[in-house]
Amino acid sequence: MAKTKPKLHQSKNPIAENVRASNVALLQKHLATAVDITYQTKQAHWNVKGMNFIAVHKLFDELHEVTEEFVDTIAERLTALGGQAHGTVQAASENTVLEPYPLDLVNSEDHLRQLSEAYARWNAEVEKGIEEASESGDPLTEDLLTEVGRGLDKSLYFLESHFQS
Fold first, then answer.
1. Does some domain include residue 131?
2. What is this structure's pTM?
3. Following DSSP, what letter does each residue of the chain receive, concatenated?
4. Would you say residue 2 lies in a domain?
């Protein structure tokens, strides 16, 4: 099923309307995923148990704060291009690239592995998005996604370090 071209608000933004529209659609997917991963991370924060509880509990809270900033940054770029940000939980569940987070996880290792998978999956999609934004001629969206990618790389490093020696 083909996505319809988003209706844009009037703007004096110098980027061509077709480029803005394609990048609004691109950013909607990343906004949905940012909302999703923000609350997947919070789900882990609320429910983690185990010997390393406090360290992992705090890590998850820090990662939640990072992804929450991505939500705002992505939504603001999307609206600057003339789009309407779809940032509700319902919109996120329809447009995220992530798998649903298991609600029965307790063990810190299980949460760490699940979040590692989610962060890696989104990071791969961000890499594709950087390329799309570059090819479309929108250096600011490309730069925004590059910033998100750097943050995801760092977060993934923090998560995966628990399994490396």
1. yes
2. 0.94
3. -PPPPPP------SS-HHHHHHHHHHHHHHHHHHHHHHHHHHHHHHH-BSTTHHHHHHHHHHHHHHHHHHHHHHHHHHHHTT-----SHHHHHHH-SSPPPPTT--BHHHHHHHHHHHHHHHHHHHHHHHHHHHHHT-HHHHHHHHHHHHHHHHHHHHHHGGG--
4. no
